[in-house]
Write a structure and sequence with these properties.
It is a single chain. This protein is mainly beta. The protein has one helix at 116-119, and strands at residues 24-31, 34-41, 52-58, 66-72, 75-80, 94-96, 99-107, 124-130, 135-143, 147-153. It is globular, with a radius of gyration of 17 Å.
Length: 155
Amino acid sequence: LRRQGLAGSAEFTVSVPTASTHATAVAYLDRASAFAANVLTDSGATPVAGASKLRVIHLAQAAGQLDIFRTQPDWQTPVSLLFPFTYGSNNGFYQSTPGVWHVRAWKSTPGMSFDATGWNRALDSLSVNIPGGGVRTIVVLDAPGNSVKFKLVDP
């Protein structure tokens, strides 16, 4: 991989496994004029009939440790994805009924509570409607102002 418009050899290479049983996506970003790359391999984690699955991958290198919570169609109380949620972490796939998943992120704060005010002060939030049989991945990326942003990666 190398930045667009620059001549010469690649700045780095990424090995991408190939198999007929799962798809692979390569995520890369330019942050502070440096590259980062990560290979996101679909585990083939097909949900049971009538269910949906979601995973979140922390690729925001400058953000440090985050608190990432979700609500899901069958559970509307905010629940942590993974603790601690550090750069490079992957929560695996969570399964629920079909419908809207809400995901929000904050800088890790010991003793943080999630009343209505705190829930609305997230660094970023994303709502994803996942149909029955659907599997989605959200990546967390660095954003200006020492913040983060979510990016939905469709299968």
